[in-house]
Amino acid sequence: MKTTRGSGRADTAPEPFRQFVVKVNSRCNLACRYCYMYFAADDGWRRQPVSASPETFRWIARRIAEHAATHQLPAVSVVLHGGEPLLTDPEVLGGFVDLVRAEAPAGCRVRATAQTNGTRLTPDRLRALAAHGIEIGLSLDGGHARHNRLRVDHAGRPAWPAIRRAARLLAEPRHRDSYAGVLCVIDPESDPVEVYQSLLELDPPALDLRLPQGNWTARPPGLDDAGPEDAGPGDTAPGRAGRPTPYADWLIAVFDRWWAADRRRVRIRIFEECLAALLHQPTAGGLFGLHPFSAVVVETDGAIEQIDALKTAYPGAAATGLHVADHAFDAALDHPGVVARQAGAAALAPACRACPLLEVCGGGNYVHRYRAGHGFANPSVYCADLARLIHHVARALRRTVTP
């Protein structure tokens, strides 16, 4: 196979970027207490322009088109992100997406999504976005006020009433084509079945149940001080106080309800990706399996960065030193951080490479492997949870396919 341009990635060509996360606004009208952007190790957002300029938008569109043409991509995804993207005028967002589509090579489909907290979504804004073919992804933590207690504005006022209005608006049949789905960060202290049922009541087409962004140095809620040397491929992790696998327990409760349903009302990404990896089918990368991750971020000033969840590791962890006005996205493919994320098993810790779950787990999310002083060559901080979830899903799958 083709080797790369001196990047240190051995034997394989780089995987082109297919998802472009564009930070259209660097500020947010909420102050969610677990946010990896504003309550993490990296406070670089303070030095970013509040909004991307028209010139920056033009450069981003040009570079996306250039990348798609270079790699003959049949489709790309553009995610309008922030901060809160709806702090930017929807017509500005629509104009940018129109420009990306106009610049894209013939035959390349551009899917555009705005990932919003929903508080600024109104019928007029939704219609304006829909007119430009922009779908809406809604971020919330459950379908009731008590699930969203950490979603507050800067004065500490609850965001739930506005979020509920947005969810009801998107669920209307006339807006169904604009509803991309719901992103929900897991709270291990919540009742998983109650949260799941409450989300179903909002009638989303898809659910993305997310593990909180964390690592061995900045541990997620519910995980104690056990180090990566304690983590292994079993169903529990030595040294964890209380419940040894709180996130697996939460997810398994939801999986069992979802899997047993006569008609699955919603797609759940984490389960579908796990099933795909178990069945040796392609995965999107970054969650399960060893398929290379293929997303890149552009900040409001035009800086090209790695995925922004890396900001939970240390200041500058996501930086590449590249800028859309001066560099093609291909230059980012040779960045050591991107190379490591695309290196598959070669970039994993010895314990991961020796693990029987390697092909399914893939070492877990790259961000979750970080440990100060030791970099990213560690098992995931969620190692035990992932192992327990995979074993459980595998058993359910065997019961289904075995006569």
UniProtKB/TrEMBL annotation:
It comes from the Bacteria. Gene3D superfamilies: Aldolase class I. Pfam families: Radical_SAM. One of its GO terms (molecular function) is oxidoreductase activity. InterPro entries: Aldolase_TIM, rSAM, rSAM_sf, rSAM_SPASM_FxsB, Sulphatase_maturase_rSAM. Residues 14-256 form the Radical SAM core domain. PROSITE patterns: RADICAL_SAM. Residues 213-243 are annotated as: Disordered. Keywords: Iron, Iron-sulfur, Metal-binding, S-adenosyl-L-methionine. Residues 220-239 have a biased composition (Low complexity). This is FxsB family radical SAM/SPASM domain protein.
